Amino acid sequence: SHLISNKSENALTANILASKRNRKLPGGQLNAVERAASVEGHDLNLDESWSTHVSKDPAMHKVLSLDATMSPRDPKAPGQFGRAAEIPKGKETNASLRWKDAYFNAYLSDLIPLDRAIDDTRPEGCSEQMVHNDLPTTSIIMCFVDEVWSTLQRSVLSVLNRSPHHLLKEIILVDDFSTKAYLKDYLDKYMQKFPKVRVLHLKERHGLIRARVAGANIATGDVLTFLDSHVECNVGWLEPLLERVHLNRKKLACPVIDIISDKDMSYITVDSYQRGIFTWPMNFGWKPIPLEVIKKNKIKESDPIRCPVMAGGLFSIDRKYFYELGTYDPGLDVWGSENMELSFKVWMCGGEIEIIPCSKVGHVFRKHQPYSFPKDRIQTIERNSVRVAEVWLDEYKEIFYGYYTHLLSSGVEDLTQQKELRKSLNCKSFKWYLENVFPDIHAPTVRANGVLANVALGQCLFIQNFTIGFEICDVFSQNQQFNYTWLRLIKHENICITPVELKGTLALQPCDNRDNSIRWLHKSLITFQPLLADHFVVEHLSQKMCLEVDRARKTLRVNSCNFTNSYQKWQFGNYYTE
Ligand code: LR7
Ligand code: MN
Fold first, then answer.
1. CA distance 475 to 460
2. Is 170 in the pocket of ligand 1 (CB under 6 A)?
3. Is there an atom of ligand 1 within 6 Å of 328 CB?
4. Average of pLDDT values for 149-174?
5. Is residue 361 within a helix (H) or strand (E), and if so which, with residue range?
6. Which of 192, 151, 147 has the alpha carbon at shortest distance from 174?
7. Which distant-in-sequence residues (6+ apart) come within 8 Å of 370 by Cβ?
8. Rounded CA gap, 7 and 12, in Å?
9. From its record, what is one biological process in GO terms (predicted)?
10. 61 has which bridge partners?
11. Exposure of 424 in the CB half-sphere (CA atoms within 13 A)
12. Which of 154, 168, 221, 197 is nearest to 42 (CA)?
């Protein structure tokens, strides 16, 4: 039914344009490229004859569901209407040889039409939504390295075919120093057919983060819209994004990202009721909005959804605002964490992030990256995340490092500029962000704290004047307060309990998060219940040594672990497990 209504709407648009401009419209005789080029030539001015689009409010109109790929020339073509495509019999080898080009089915991408139609997967109400007539224009920025040629073409054509011409200032293709010959030989020539498409060839590999900024630097639209290079924009995708930015220039608007199957190129819609979130250490994820919450707040499927973080690849942002925020940290390399950086920055420095369910863009999800990393892949990605953690996470970076202890000693680079930027933008704390934007995340700054009781002794540890002893437990005693941190230190104020020898006494020393020899593993090894009364195992020794009460001298020592010995069992006052 969606298809039919769009078709007639498209026809309506076409008639108005035809009568106004008296020029030839995209038709059956043209090929995919000519059709897109001719759509590009249209000027979609709103006028009074556009009756179904004009609302009671003369400043607004119904969202334009333009789609120049309707009435597809070959309805039977493989992949048409977003259907799954099949590898023809006998071509399996050809297809599998191409798998590593992209880690998605490049063979089928070549087989399906460059301008195939896809189902209008927008939720109910979206095609009736009103948007302002004076929406800002946008520059589309698409960076790529060695993208499959047909996939890149399809991405560009989907923008041209399904975006109102007057809002599309330009499409900037940033070639991140691709190595493939086809991108050198005929990319420029092909794209010249579209006056709005500009190609920027980088002279060295920048990685997607600096490549996007290079594109932004030459953009002239009011709004920047970033897209990956393996996407298909759905009907009416653009205006709902621009509308949100228009309402508030500090809003960053993301489409719902539909799935284009890596295996068969089918276009699959996803559930709209999902937020973009992160889990520790700093991984992006989707979190469904619980049904009770939807019901209680009467959330419609077409309502914008505020998100703690965005996926990263597909979003619109006011161009000037992007620069006010200092764009991305230019020290971020190749891939990763830039979505966290911009998300934290936007929220903490006065902006907002939303997913707009009425804007749908398909993206080819894949399991591996086909391109090489100039330096070691893992190191590059981890280094990026350290930069973001150091600048934005405040005291919560301990949680991050709790998962990535090995990165503590990685030697933090100079982040003065990024920290200065945060200061000059007057940004709020990460604590504020967690409490106000992402209250449902579990983020205790320590894993356990309070008194530390020995199970056999039934007494609590205290530290006074750099000496250790035991006394009756008193939760109000300052001397009995200990923290068990994410970095697995047993900490009283800034003093850490430190094993000194294999068998023997303990020392107290000022805590140093980077010192691996003072970490204690405290988890139940038998019940698999994390963090209950249990042993503290010295972590850096291969032989299992445990924290123990020396009964005779009523003090502490380390001894070989004996998991039935309750003089080696300890319990904190509070545990912060989920
Ligand atoms: O060195 C590079 N230079 C590039 O130009 C590496 C990549 N790129 C291009 C690449 O061709 C592609 O167009 O950058 C784009 C993104 O790279 P992908 O497609 O390999 O990344 P992805 O889709 O796996 O990863 C997601 O996270 C990235 C984190 O750095 C980026 O933000 C991607 O844009 C982002 N993609 C999405 O948000 C789509 C939804 C994925 C999810 C969840
Ligand atoms: Mn991608």
1. 9
2. no
3. no
4. 97
5. strand 352-364
6. 147
7. 100, 101, 102, 103, 146
8. 9
9. protein O-linked glycosylation
10. 54, 131
11. 9
12. 168
Model pLDDT for residues 56-79, shown as the tens digit of each residue = 788 999 999 999 888 888 999 999
H or E element, residue 278: strand 274-279
215 pocket-lining for ligand 1 (C-beta < 6 Å): no
CA 275 to chain centre: 11
For ligand 2, a single-atom ion, the residues with CB < 5 A are 228
Q: Could you give the CA distance from residue 556 to residue 62 in angstroms, rounded to a whole number?
A: 74
Contact 38, 135 (CB under 8 A): no
If you ran DSSP here, which 8-state letter would residue 322 be given? H
Exposed e or buried b for every residue in 11-21, given b needs 16+ CB within 10 A?
eebbebbeeee
Place of tokens 């006998």: 90
Average pLDDT of the residues in 192-200: 96
Cα 570 to Cα 490: distance, rounded to the nearest angstrom: 12
Q: Copy the structure tokens of residue 168.
A: 């599309």
**Paired tokens of 509:** 């020393």
pTM of the model: 0.91
Please state whether the peptide bond connecting residue 281 to the residue before it is cis, i.e. omega within 30 degrees of 0: yes
User: Ligand 1, atom 39: nearest CA belongs to which residue?
Assistant: 313
- Under the banding of pLDDT at 50, 70 and 90, the label for residue 36 is low
What radius of gyration, in Å, describes the C-alpha atoms of the chain? 29
Distance in Å, CA 530 to ligand 2 centroid: 37
Quick one: tokens of 124?
């109910």
Per-residue tokens: 185: 């030989």
Rounded Cα gap, residues 463 and 473, in angstroms:
13
CB 253 within 8 A of CB 316: yes
Q: Taking a C-beta distance cutoff of 8 angstroms, is the pair 140, 171 a contact? A: yes
Encoded tokens for 17 = 């344009």
Residue 15 structure tokens = 């008639």
> Which atom number of ligand 1 is nearest to the Cα of residue 228?
13
Question: How far is Cα 369 from Cα 366, in angstroms, rounded to an integer?
Answer: 8
**Check: complex ipTM more than 0.85:** yes
> Rounded to an integer, what is the distance from CA 126 to the centroid of its chain?
25
In 382-505, beta strands by DSSP E: 446-454, 459-464, 467-471, 482-485, 490-492, 495-499
